[in-house]
């Protein structure tokens, strides 16, 4: 029933947006953990249609954030291989029956899994990240409101709610709650220290958001784009591209990424401990969001609730692995940069 509803909305979207008539049923494709994405073929071409999560779109700042992120991707697409949403009647966000959509021209390619990523991929994405950081976005007139510095999360509240709903992750959250409080406090202090030296960037440039076609990358999913500390963005993205399935970090790939960046940007310096401690912030934010989904606080349907429940466990374990990796990363960065 839900898929039928989406199909009718997509048909309506095609008519209103002059994308042509559908030639076949929309095909659901992987859209990460937030949104639904469908591949469609019409009389005018092939497109990817992203259905934006309704519980995100009701947030007061959501519309502005999406508009800003699409302005960023459209602006930088003249300098790097980036895929912005199509503008239809001057708007990048389309609305049909209360559902918001982004429409993308179809691009061939696939994202790389951990065991498929080589040094050459890391170096290439490192150089692209440098080009993003070097871009002058001032004509867009975007301001940094500092909202990402964050407030301490009430982890005890989520633990209590989890107990009341007898959810699978309660024991794991209880075992790690004191560490979560410590990491949360540490990350917020680090983010305050790093509030200067900000650049505009993609902010989620991991391997799932890069499509490769004959070794040529296309950067997709710009919805998180905005201001971020330059060195934090570099190190966090280098970690994305050098990770393995066991949660470890491949040193050679890690420094291939950084060297690709340095070749385009130049030398860099950082308070590495502070940068690494700040790395907890986005991970803890993702954990809180999935706690809300698992508890039906921000959740559209049962499928999303199940995704949230699974992600709570996976995210806590990933945060623990990251904490254990910090001493090694700190040693590498201190001795080799």
From TrEMBL:
Pfam families: APH (PF01636). It comes from the Bacteria. Residues 29-256 form the Aminoglycoside phosphotransferase domain. Gene3D superfamilies: 3.90.1200.10. This is Phosphotransferase.
């Amino acid at each position: 029933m839900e898929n039928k509803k989406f199909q009718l909305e997509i048909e309506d979207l095609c008519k209103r947006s002059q994308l042509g008539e559908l030639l076949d049923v929309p095909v659901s494709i992987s859209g990460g953990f937030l949104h639904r994405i469908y591949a469609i073929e019409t009389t005018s071409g092939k497109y990817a249609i992203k259905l934006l999560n309704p519980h995100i779109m009701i947030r007061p700042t959501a519309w502005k954030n999406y508009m800003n992120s699409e302005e960023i991707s459209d602006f930088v697409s003249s300098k790097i291989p980036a895929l912005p949403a199509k503008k239809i009647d001057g708007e990048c966000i389309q609305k049909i029956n209360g559902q918001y959509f982004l429409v993308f021209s179809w691009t061939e390619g696939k994202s790389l899994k951990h065991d498929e990523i080589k040094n050459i991929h890391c170096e290439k994405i490192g150089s692209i990240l440098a080009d993003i950081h070097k871009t002058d976005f001032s004509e867009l007139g975007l301001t940094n409101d500092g909202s990402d510095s964050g407030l301490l999360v009430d982890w005890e509240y989520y633990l209590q709610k989890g107990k009341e709903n007898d959810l699978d992750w309660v024991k794991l959250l209880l075992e790690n709650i004191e560490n979560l409080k410590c990491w949360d406090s540490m990350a917020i202090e680090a983010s305050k220290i790093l509030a200067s030296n900000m650049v505009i960037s993609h902010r989620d440039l991991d391997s799932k958001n890069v499509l490769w076609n004959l070794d040529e990358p296309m950067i997709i999913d710009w919805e998180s784009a905005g201001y971020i500390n330059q060195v934090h963005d570099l190190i966090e993205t280098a970690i994305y591209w050098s990770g393995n399935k066991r949660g470890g970090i491949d040193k050679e790939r890690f420094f291939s990424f950084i060297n690709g960046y340095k070749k385009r940007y130049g030398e860099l310096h950082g308070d590495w401990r502070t940068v690494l401690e700040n790395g907890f912030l986005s991970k803890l934010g993702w954990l809180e969001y999935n706690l809300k989904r698992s508890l039906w606080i921000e959740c559209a349907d049962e499928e999303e609730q199940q995704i949230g429940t699974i992600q709570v466990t996976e995210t806590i374990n990933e945060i623990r692995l990251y904490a254990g990796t910090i001493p090694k990363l700190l040693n590498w960065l201190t001795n080799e940069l």
